[in-house]
């Protein structure tokens, strides 16, 4: 997958691999990267491909066209995809499956956000591990303006990230919020000038890809467990992943590189 790979309806999803970083691009700029059910399915497929590729250590999700990350569901598809109970159930099952893949994903996922990050796009970004956006980015969940119901799992992910007070503000008002407001809420990790976005995200991705994969994997799993209800936390798995770090050749390499004052070459073993 070193060459750009095209998948999904009318080339609306793209993926590429550069070094240890896999990138998935929502490519529907005419509709501000609004997403159909087929595009969600393609995203899940691409993530599964990158999960199986040991060379890929970090994933970046982004949108094409310079005006949007993802502006939500493609409303032009609602009559076809979400106008009947069966259609709604199928669409929801597809998006729930994608969020489940992201939730269980062992590799870090960065949302690189420029412009609109609305509705399902914000739900996608909230599912990622890090969110880096430009100063002109806009965030919001317009469900209350469309009469849509929002499932518990999506609400919980937002509450875990920004807390109940801001989650209520986002959902009750259905307003669009600025990048600065999103940062103040804790919705995004960093706000950068538009011209700096790719450089900053590349620096983050390359830095993470160069670190010990088993350590990053163990840390991500434990952090996810930390926001779960106590009865659902898998402490044994957390301990198992930590033990794998100490038993790895990467632990030996990390110590040697530190003593030899050189950059370590981690292999994930």
Secondary structure elements and pairings:
Elements lengths: L4 E3 L5 E6 L2 E6 L10 H15 L6 E6 L4 E3 L7 H4 L3 H20 L4 E5 L2 E3 L1 H8 L2 E5 L3 E3 L2 H4 L5 H11 L1 H10 L3 E2 H7 L4 E3 L4 H14 L2 H14 L8 H12 L2 H12 L9
Parallel strand pairs: 3-4, 4-6, 5-7, 6-8, 7-9, 8-11
Antiparallel strand pairs: 1-2, 2-3, 9-10
Helix pairs in contact: 1-3, 6-7, 10-11
What would the principal axes of the Cα set say about the shape? globular
CATH architecture of the largest domain: Alpha-Beta Complex
Question: How much of the polypeptide forms β-strand, as a percent range?
Answer: 15-25%
Helical content class: 40-55%
Structural class: alpha/beta
What is the class of the largest domain in the CATH system?
Answer: Alpha Beta
Radius of gyration: 19 Å
Domain count: the total is: 2
**SSE run:** EEEHEEHHEEHEEHHHEHEHHHH
Largest sheet: 7 strands, mixed
CATH topology of the largest domain: 2-enoyl-CoA Hydratase, Chain A, domain 1
Give start-end ranges of low-pLDDT stretches.
Answer: 1-8
Q: What is the number of helical segments per DSSP (H or I, 4+ residues)?
A: 12
CATH superfamily of the largest domain: 2-enoyl-CoA Hydratase, Chain A, domain 1
- Strand line-up of the largest beta sheet: 1-2-3-4-6-8-11
Folded structure, characterized:
Helix content is 49%, strand content 17%. It has 269 residues and is of the alpha/beta class. It folds into two domains: 5-208, Alpha-Beta Complex (2-enoyl-CoA Hydratase, Chain A, domain 1); 211-260. The strands form two sheets. A seven-stranded mixed sheet has the order 1-2-3-4-6-8-11, sandwiched between helices. It has a four-stranded mixed sheet with strand order 5-7-9-10. A hairpin with a 2-residue loop joins β2 and β3 (21-26). The longest helix is centred in the middle third of the chain and has 20 residues, at 85-104. The chain is globular, with a radius of gyration of 19 Å. Residues 1-8 have low confidence and may be disordered.
């Amino acid at each position: 997958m070193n060459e750009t790979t095209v998948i999904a309806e009318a080339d609306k999803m793209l993926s590429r691999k550069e070094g240890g970083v896999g990138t998935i691009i929502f490519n529907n700029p005419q509709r501000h990267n609004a997403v159909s059910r087929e595009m969600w399915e393609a995203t899940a497929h691409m993530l599964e491909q990158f999960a199986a590729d040991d060379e890929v250590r970090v994933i970046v999700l982004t949108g094409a066209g310079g005006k949007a990350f993802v502006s939500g569901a493609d409303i032009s598809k609602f009559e076809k995809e979400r106008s009947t109970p069966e259609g709604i159930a199928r669409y929801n099952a597809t998006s729930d499956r994608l969020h489940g893949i992201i939730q269980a994903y062992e590799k870090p996922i960065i949302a690189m956000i420029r412009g609109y990050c609305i509705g399902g796009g914000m739900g996608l970004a909230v599912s990622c591990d890090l969110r880096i956006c430009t100063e002109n980015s806009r965030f919001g969940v317009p469900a209350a303006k469309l009469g849509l119901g929002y499932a518990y799992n999506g609400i919980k992910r937002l509450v875990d990230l920004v807390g109940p007070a801001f989650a209520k503000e986002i959902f009750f008002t259905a307003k669009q919020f600025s990048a600065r407001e999103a940062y103040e809420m804790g919705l995004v990790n960093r706000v950068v000038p538009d011209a700096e976005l790719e450089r900053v995200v590349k620096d983050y991705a390359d830095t993470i890809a160069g670190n010990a994969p088993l350590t990053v994997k163990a840390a991500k799993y434990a952090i996810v467990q930390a926001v779960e209800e106590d009865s659902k936390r898998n402490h044994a798995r957390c301990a198992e992943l930590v033990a794998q770090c100490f038993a790895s050749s990467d632990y030996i390499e990390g110590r040697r590189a530190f003593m030899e004052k050189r950059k370590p070459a981690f292999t994930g073993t």
